[in-house]
Design brief:
The chain has four helices and eleven strands, in the order ααββαβββββαββββ. The protein is an alpha+beta fold. It has two domains: 55 residues, no CATH class; 126 residues, Immunoglobulin-like. Strands 3, 4, 5, 6, 7, 8, 9, 10 and 11 form a nine-stranded antiparallel beta sheet that branches. A two-stranded antiparallel ribbon has the order 1-2. The termini are far apart.
C-alpha cells in the first residue's frame, strides 16, 4: 500500500498545470487513495476512524511520548467483586494526557449492608494507561450523572470514581437520591472526559 507521502508525490508529479495526465496514471492514483483511506484498520481491537491516528498506523510512524493513543473496550460487561452490578466500558484517550470514559452501569442486586460502592478489577494494560493520567495517589473524581430506573429517568446522582491499584471504584452519594430508585434495574449510561494535571494539592 502506498504511503501518504508517496501518493502526494505522484499527484504533484503527474497532475500538473497544462499537463496531459494519462488515464492509467489517474487510475493508479485514485486506487492508491482508496486503498489508503479504506476502513478496517484496528488497534487494540478498536476500529480507527480518526484520520490523523490512521495516518500514524498506516505509515508505521513510531509512537512518541507526546502522542500515544490508546483504546480499550469490550462488548461484554464486567461484574464488581460482589456480583451486585455490571459495567460495560470503553476507555479511549492519549497516554499521559486525557481519556474519554464511556460506560453503562447496571445494578443487579442492591445490598444495604455493602453500601453503594462497587469495585471492578481492570486488566494491566488499562491500569497502566489510566495511571499515566491519574498521577496522584488519591485521585478521586466526582461527577453528576443521569440515573435511570429500568427505562425511566430517575434523577441525577453524584458518582465518585477512583483508581486504587488495579481496581476501578464507583461510589455513590447516600444523600442525593431515593433508595427506592436504587434498586434492581437502576442504571447509568453516559460518557465523561477527564485529565488530571499535577496540581500541588498540598500547598496551603
Amino acid at each position: 500500500m502506498a504511503t501518504k507521502d508517496e501518493i502526494t508525490s505522484k499527484i504533484n508529479s503527474k497532475i500538473v498545470k497544462d499537463g496531459n495526465i494519462r488515464a492509467v496514471d489517474t487510475n493508479e492514483i485514485l486506487r492508491d487513495i482508496l486503498d489508503f483511506s479504506n476502513t478496517g484498520i484496528t488497534q487494540n481491537t478498536t476500529n480507527i476512524n480518526n484520520i490523523e491516528q490512521r495516518v500514524i498506523v498506516l505509515e508505521n510512524k513510531p509512537e512518541t511520548d507526546d502522542y500515544k493513543p490508546f483504546s480499550f473496550w469490550d462488548e461484554n460487561p464486567i461484574a464488581d467483586n460482589n456480583g451486585l452490578s455490571q459495567l460495560w466500558y470503553s476507555f479511549k484517550g492519549i497516554s499521559k494526557e486525557s481519556v474519554n470514559f464511556t460506560f453503562k452501569f447496571v445494578l443487579l442486586k442492591p445490598d444495604s449492608k455493602k453500601g453503594k460502592e462497587y469495585n471492578y478489577k481492570l486488566n494491566d494494560k488499562i491500569v497502566k494507561e489510566l495511571k499515566s493520567i491519574l498521577i496522584g495517589k488519591d485521585d478521586n473524581l466526582t461527577f453528576i450523572v443521569p440515573g435511570c430506573y429500568n427505562d425511566f429517568y430517575s434523577n441525577h446522582v453524584c458518582l465518585n470514581i477512583s483508581l486504587i491499584e488495579d481496581t476501578l471504584k464507583f461510589r455513590f452519594s447516600d444523600n442525593n437520591f431515593n433508595d427506592n430508585n436504587f434498586d434492581n434495574g437502576f442504571n447509568i449510561f453516559t460518557s465523561i472526559h477527564f485529565h488530571c494535571p499535577p496540581f500541588n494539592l498540598d500547598r496551603k
